[in-house]
Write a structure and sequence with these properties.
Shape of chain A: globular
Strand order of the largest sheet of chain B: 1-2-3-6-5-4
Strand content of chain B: 35-45%
Mean pLDDT of chain B: 91
Largest interface: A-B, 24 and 26 residues
Helix content of chain B: 10-25%
Order of helices and strands of chain A: HEEEEEEEEEEEEHEEHEHEEHEEE
Mean pLDDT of chain A: 91
Strand order of the largest sheet of chain A: 1-2-3-6-5-4
Radius of gyration of chain A: 21 Å
Strand content of chain A: 35-45%
Low-confidence stretches of chain B: none
Radius of gyration of chain B: 16 Å
Largest sheet of chain A: 6 strands, antiparallel, barrel
Distance between the termini of chain A: 57 Å
Oligomer: heterodimer
Distance between the termini of chain B: 43 Å
Number of helices of chain B: 2
Chain lengths: ~290, ~190
């Protein structure tokens, strides 16, 4: 058999293999999304496609629909975890190490439907929220479905996120961490600092003086009473430059480090106050209200 | 994938393109290209009904020969048409079995998109079935097509024709499944 035909057969086999653990997720008004039966009884999908907390259902590969409950959300990486009761449903074969730039990957959606392409970049600037940038088409309803390698092993889940212009993959390692956290705690806490921030440009004098390699940061415009930030002594007007060793160049960077597994962790916040660098110890807390 | 396998696959793709170009014709009405067609065994061309706008069409082979194609059968609802051509040494396509398109398998399209002769595009089978509930079945492929691809072959990795490219739906190529093409050709009395 020629190499092309054997690749073709591998890809078709990969779709069959991975789609056994793929489900449809019905949690938004119009078109449903897709999900992966990641561990026994736990389905992962893209958080932005789970628009309701009640009356969520999951459609199995055999067409049967079963009720699901929202077990946890990690909006920083657009991940939601659902609980289902389907002991006979196969669990995905996950590979959390192999995704490399240039690899051929398949994105699958309920049906099964498929598209293919390559991993075009791996953003590792923020290691625990690194995403795969994909050169492929995510068709309507694909979000939350499996991203597989040419053998059908699941290397992540896909999401178009909130933008129509991006095709992203949440790497399997990040999904594994979130699922581990959920299993360990029995629920998924929402990490909380208790500040509102705005982007701010750093003055040249400060850049030179502190030898910083970032031009922007996040300035505190509100500190919520009784919050972890308030306990740590953060004040309105403080400029946050880094938290836990991660550069904060914009408010979104701050959101990205607030991951469920960080709840309870004590981290160092590097700030500028009145032009002087300071370090504060902050214990990341849990958001008190649900929404 | 090792470098050698990738290299072999690229050589296979070149061979596949060569093989398919030989059996893909360009159909013209007056003097401009209208679409593509597939050389069928026994001296016939199958294409889309929307490509054939008159009873006689000019059929251009890859070697530059121009033959006259005479309309034998046309089914507007299935978007299929059959032309008869006469000539010596006309090659014909290898036709796949009816259940040949598996979701995820590689497919290639050859045609004359926007007047570019013999252009090859490659992708995978996205789904097989209706696009909307209750509609007719299509091979839906994650392959980029353009006007001029109509009537041209969608083939598997071995060069067997699995469908006839008919239109785009968003970024998906829709091809008439080969089973339907075979049924249409048989109904016109061609073996």
């Amino acid at each position: 058999m020629n190499a092309l035909l054997s690749l073709s057969n591998d890809l078709a086999g990969a779709v069959e293999h991975a789609s056994r653990a793929m489900v449809g997720v019905n949690a938004r008004p119009r078109m449903g999304s897709s999900g992966v039966h990641w561990r026994s009884g736990l389905v992962v999908t893209a958080n932005h496609t789970v628009q309701v907390d009640e009356d969520v259902t999951v459609t199995r590969p055999d067409g049967r629909t079963v009720p699901a409950t929202v077990a946890g959300r990690d909006s920083a990486i657009d991940l939601a975890i659902l609980r289902i009761d389907a002991p006979d449903l196969p669990v995905a074969e996950v590979d959390d190490e192999s995704a490399r730039v240039g690899h051929i990957v398949l994105a699958l959606g309920r049906g099964p439907r498929a598209s293919w392409g390559i991993v075009s970049a791996i953003d590792d600037a923020r290691s625990d929220a690194a995403l795969l940038t994909l050169d492929l088409t995510l068709y309507p309803g694909f979000s939350g479905g499996p991203l597989t390698d040419a053998r059908g092993r699941v290397v992540g889940i896909t999401t178009s996120g909130s933008s129509r212009h991006f095709q992203l993959g949440i790497p399997a390692a990040a999904v594994n961490r979130a699922v581990d956290e959920l299993v360990r705690r029995g629920r998924m806490p929402r990490a909380y600092l208790g500040v509102s921030t705005q982007p701010v440009r750093l003055p040249e004098s400060v850049l030179a003086q502190l030898a910083l390699d970032q031009r922007t940061a996040a300035i505190v415009v509100d500190v919520h009473a009784g919050s972890p930030a308030a306990h740590a002594g953060l004040l309105i007007g403080d400029v946050i430059i880094a938290v836990a060793g991660v550069r904060i160049t914009a408010p979104l960077d701050l959101k990205a480090i607030l991951r469920p597994q960080r709840v309870g962790e004590s981290v160092v916040a590097s700030i500028l106050r009145g032009g002087e660098a300071r370090e504060l110890q902050v214990t990341i807390g849990e958001r008190p209200d649900r929404r | 994938m090792s470098g050698r396998i990738a290299g072999d696959a690229i050589l296979d793709l070149e061979e596949l393109a060569h093989q398919l170009r030989r059996v893909t014709v360009e159909l013209t009405g007056d003097d401009h290209g209208l679409g593509s067609g597939v050389l069928w065994p026994h001296g016939f061309v199958v294409t889309n009904a929307h490509v054939v706008r008159r009873p006689r069409m000019t059929v251009r082979l890859v070697d530059g020969r121009r033959l006259e194609g005479e309309l034998v059968a046309r089914a507007a609802d299935a978007d299929l048409a059959l032309l008869r051509v006469a000539g010596i040494g006309i090659p014909s396509a290898v036709i796949a079995g009816p259940e040949s398109a598996r979701v995820g398998s590689l497919v290639v399209a050859v045609g004359h998109p926007l007047g570019v002769r013999g252009a090859l595009s490659a992708g995978i089978v996205h789904a097989v079935g209706p696009v909307t509930r209750g509609g007719r079945p299509w091979i839906q492929a994650d392959v980029r097509l353009a006007p001029g691809n109509s009537g041209g072959p969608l083939a598997d990795a071995a060069g067997r024709v699995v469908g006839l490219n008919a239109m785009m739906a968003g970024s998906l190529a829709l091809a008439v499944p080969i089973a339907e093409v075979i049924r249409f050709v048989r109904s016109a009395g061609v073996p």
